[in-house]
C-alpha cells in the first residue's frame, strides 16, 4: 500500500495531472480527461458508502443530477452567481442524503440497494416530469461558465481542466483524511460486521447516515462541476446506468481502496474512447468484462496488487508478525482468511 | 361505473403481469439469495423472442409465447451456470454487480440484433368484447386469465409434485435439503429456468398492448423488486398480492392523480411502507 498510496505516489499522480495539458494532443483530450475527473470525484464519493461502509447505493447518479440541477436552476432561472450555486450543490445533495439516509439505512443489504434503486428512479422521473422547475425533457441550456476569480478565468478548455483537477485533488485529499481517521476505521468496522461494530459501542445509524451524506456530498459537488463544465443538463444524467458506470469504475480499480476508484474512473473513459467503434454495442463487451472481473478479479487493480504484495512479503519474512488488518482495508473478510492460509 | 370498471380491469392486467415477473424474481431470491437485477433483461429477452418467432418465423401467438419461454429458460440456466454459480460464496455486492453486467450484455445484444427502435407485437385477439354493458379489450381479459392460470399451475407444481417439493425444501433450509440428498445445482438451474420462463410469458402476454424495445425491462424489474419487498422477499403468495397492490395503485393512481406520475406511485408507495415497516408488509422471519 505504501508504494501506491504513499506521498510519492500521490505526488506523481498530481504532477501527471498538472502536465497533462502540455502532453495532450488537442482540446478534445482535455475534455475527455476533465469529464473523467468529474466522474472520478463522484465515484470516489460512491466508494465511501459502498466500498468502505458496505451499503450499495444505486441512486448515486441521481444525487449527482441533484447537484447539477441545483447549479443549473439557480444560475439560469434565478441569476445566482455560479460559485454560490456550486457551494449549494453539494450541500443540497447532502441534506437530501440525510433524509433519504435516515429512512433507507435502517434497511440491510439488498433491501437498501433496492430502496436506493427506487429513489434513483424517483429522482429521474421527478426531473423529467416537473417541468416548471427542471424544464423537463428539454433540459437546462445556457448555464454560465464559472465567473473569473481575480485574474483567473474559466473559459478555455485548459482553464476548466485545471479547475476540475483542483477540485478532484482537494476531494481526494479530504477523502484520504476521512478514511485514515478514526471515522474511516469506524466505517470499515461497520462494513466488516454490523453486529460486531455495534457491540463495540459504535452508533450504527449515526455513522451510516454520516457516510451516506459525505458520499452524496461528493456526488452533488461533481454534479455542480458538471453543470459548470458542460453547461447543458438533461434528465438522462440521473439515469441509473450512470451509477452502474461508476460501479464499474470502482470495481476495475478496486472497491474499498482509496486509489482504486480514482484509477478506474480515469482509465475507463480512454478505454471507451478506443472502443468507440463499438458505439452503443460497447456493453456487449463491458457486460461480460464486468462479470469476469467479479468472478476472477473481485479486488480490482489496486486490491489485487496489495494482495500480491502481502503474499510476497509473507514469503520473504515468514517469521515476521502478520500485518494488522486495519493496514489493509482492501481485503474482504473472506479474502483475508484465504490470504492467511497462504501465508 | 364504466370508468371504474376500466380501472379494475387495468389494475388486474398490470397486477397479473407484475406478479408473474415478481414470482420469478422472488423464487430465485428465496432459493438462491441472488437479487437478480438481470431479471428485467430476461423479461425483455422474452418479448423479443416472442416478437421474432411471430414476425420473422411465422409462429402463431401461443407457439411464439411457448418458444419465448423455452429460450429465456435456457438463458436463465446459462446465467446460473456461467455467472451466479461461480459466485455462490462471494459477498452480496458481487452478485448485484454480476447481474448488472449480465443485464447490460443482454440489452446490448437485443439492440445489436434488432436495433434501438420500438417494435409492436401483433395479437390475434385485438377484438373488444361486450359483457353486460361493459366493454373490454380481449387481450386484457386474456392476460388476466393466462397470468392467474399460470400462477395456479405454479402453485400446484410447487405443492403437488416431488420436483416442486425439492425446490420448496431448498428454499426453507439449504443445509437440510443437502443432507437429505437434494442436488443443489439441479434445483438452482431449475429455479432459474422457471424464473426465466415466467418472465418470458409475462412479456409475451403484455407486449401486444405495450411496445418492444431494449430497455423495456427497466421499470418492470424495479417494480418487481418493490413487489417482492412488499410481499416479503422469497414469498410466493407475497409476490402475487404485492403485484396486485402495485397494479391497482398504478391504475387508480394514473386515473385519479395523474398519468404523468403513475410510475412514481409504486416507488413512493415502497418508500412510505419501508419507512414505517423496514421488513416489508408481509415478511415473517424470512431473510
TrEMBL record, chain A:
Disordered as annotated region, ranges: 317-343
GO MF term list: branched-chain amino acid transmembrane transporter activity
Subcellular location: Cell membrane
UniProt feature, compositional bias: Low complexity: 317-331
Membrane topology: Multi-pass membrane protein
Segments traversing the membrane: 7-24, 30-49, 56-76, 82-103, 110-127, 160-179, 209-229, 249-271, 283-306
Keyword Transmembrane: yes
The entry's keywords: Cell membrane, Membrane, Transmembrane, Transmembrane helix
A Pfam family this chain is assigned to: BPD_transp_2
Domain of life: Bacteria
Main location group: membrane
Gene Ontology CC terms, in alphabetical order: plasma membrane
Keyword Cell membrane in annotation: yes
Name the record gives this protein: ABC transporter permease
Organism of provenance: Caldimonas brevitalea
Amino acid at each position: 500500500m505504501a508504494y501506491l498510496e504513499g506521498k510519492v505516489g500521490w505526488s506523481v499522480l498530481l504532477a501527471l495531472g498538472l502536465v497533462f495539458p502540455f502532453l495532450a494532443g488537442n482540446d478534445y483530450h482535455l475534455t475527455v480527461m476533465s469529464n473523467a475527473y468529474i466522474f472520478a470525484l463522484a465515484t470516489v464519493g460512491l466508494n465511501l458508502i459502498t466500498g468502505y461502509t458496505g451499503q450499495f447505493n444505486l441512486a448515486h447518479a441521481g444525487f449527482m443530477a441533484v447537484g447539477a440541477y441545483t447549479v443549473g436552476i439557480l444560475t439560469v432561472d434565478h441569476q445566482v452567481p455560479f460559485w454560490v450555486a456550486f457551494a449549494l450543490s453539494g450541500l443540497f445533495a447532502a441534506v437530501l442524503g440525510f433524509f433519504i439516509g435516515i429512512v433507507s439505512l435502517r434497511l440491510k443489504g439488498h433491501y437498501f440497494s433496492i430502496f436506493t434503486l427506487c429513489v434513483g428512479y424517483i429522482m429521474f422521473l421527478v426531473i423529467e416530469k416537473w417541468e416548471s422547475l427542471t424544464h423537463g425533457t428539454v433540459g437546462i441550456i445556457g448555464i454560465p461558465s464559472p465567473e473569473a476569480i481575480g485574474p483567473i478565468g474559466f473559459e478555455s478548455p485548459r482553464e476548466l481542466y485545471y479547475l476540475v483537477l483542483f477540485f478532484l485533488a482537494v476531494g481526494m485529499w479530504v477523502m484520504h483524511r476521512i478514511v485514515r481517521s478514526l471515522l474511516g476505521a469506524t466505517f470499515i468496522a461497520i462494513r466488516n460486521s454490523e453486529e460486531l461494530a455495534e457491540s463495540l459501542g459504535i452508533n450504527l445509524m449515526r455513522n451510516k447516515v454520516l457516510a451516506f451524506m459525505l458520499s452524496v456530498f461528493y456526488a452533488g459537488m461533481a454534479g455542480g462541476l458538471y453543470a459548470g463544465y458542460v453547461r447543458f443538463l438533461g434528465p438522462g444524467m440521473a439515469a441509473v446506468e450512470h451509477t452502474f458506470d461508476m460501479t464499474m469504475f470502482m470495481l476495475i480499480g478496486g472497491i474499498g481502496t482509496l486509489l482504486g476508484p480514482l484509477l478506474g474512473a480515469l482509465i475507463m473513459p480512454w478505454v471507451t474512447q478506443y472502443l468507440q467503434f463499438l458505439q452503443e454495442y460497447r456493453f456487449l463487451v463491458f457486460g461480460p468484462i464486468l462479470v469476469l472481473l467479479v468472478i476472477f478479479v473481485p479486488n480490482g487493480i489496486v486490491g489485487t496488487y496489495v494482495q500480491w504484495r502481502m503474499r510476497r512479503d509473507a514469503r520473504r519474512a515468514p517469521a515476521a508478525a502478520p500485518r494488522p488488518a486495519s493496514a489493509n482495508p482492501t481485503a474482504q473478510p473472506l479474502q483475508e482468511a484465504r490470504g492467511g492460509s497462504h501465508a | 361505473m364504466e370508468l371504474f370498471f376500466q380501472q379494475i380491469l387495468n389494475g388486474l392486467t398490470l397486477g397479473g403481469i407484475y406478479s408473474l415477473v415478481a414470482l420469478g424474481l422472488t423464487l430465485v431470491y428465496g432459493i438462491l439469495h441472488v437479487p437478480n437485477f438481470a431479471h428485467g433483461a430476461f423479461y425483455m429477452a422474452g418479448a423479443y423472442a416472442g416478437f421474432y418467432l411471430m414476425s420473422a418465423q411465422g409462429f402463431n401467438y401461443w407457439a411464439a409465447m411457448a418458444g419465448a419461454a423455452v429460450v429465456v429458460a435456457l438463458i436463465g440456466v446459462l446465467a446460473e451456470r456461467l455467472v451466479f454459480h461461480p459466485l455462490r460464496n462471494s459477498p452480496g455486492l458481487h452478485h448485484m454487480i454480476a447481474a448488472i453486467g449480465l443485464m447490460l450484455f443482454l440489452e446490448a445484444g437485443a439492440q445489436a440484433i434488432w436495433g434501438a427502435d420500438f417494435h409492436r407485437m401483433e395479437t390475434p385477439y385485438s377484438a373488444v368484447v361486450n359483457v353486460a354493458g361493459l366493454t373490454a379489450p380481449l387481450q386484457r381479459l386474456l392476460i388476466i386469465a393466462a397470468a392467474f392460470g399460470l400462477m395456479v399451475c405454479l402453485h400446484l407444481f410447487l405443492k403437488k409434485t416431488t420436483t416442486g417439493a425439492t425446490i420448496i425444501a431448498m428454499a426453507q433450509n439449504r443445509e437440510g435439503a443437502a443432507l437429505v440428498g437434494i442436488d443443489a445445482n439441479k434445483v438452482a438451474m431449475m429455479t432459474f429456468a422457471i424464473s426465466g420462463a415466467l418472465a418470458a410469458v409475462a412479456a409475451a402476454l403484455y407486449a401486444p398492448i405495450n411496445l418492444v424495445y431494449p430497455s423495456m425491462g427497466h421499470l418492470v424489474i424495479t417494480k418487481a423488486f418493490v413487489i417482492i419487498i412488499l410481499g416479503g422477499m422469497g414469498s410466493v403468495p407475497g409476490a402475487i398480492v404485492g403485484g396486485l397492490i402495485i397494479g391497482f395503485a398504478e391504475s387508480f393512481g394514473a386515473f385519479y392523480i395523474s398519468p404523468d406520475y403513475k410510475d412514481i406511485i409504486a416507488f413512493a408507495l415502497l418508500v412510505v411502507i419501508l419507512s414505517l415497516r423496514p421488513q416489508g408488509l408481509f415478511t415473517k422471519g424470512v431473510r
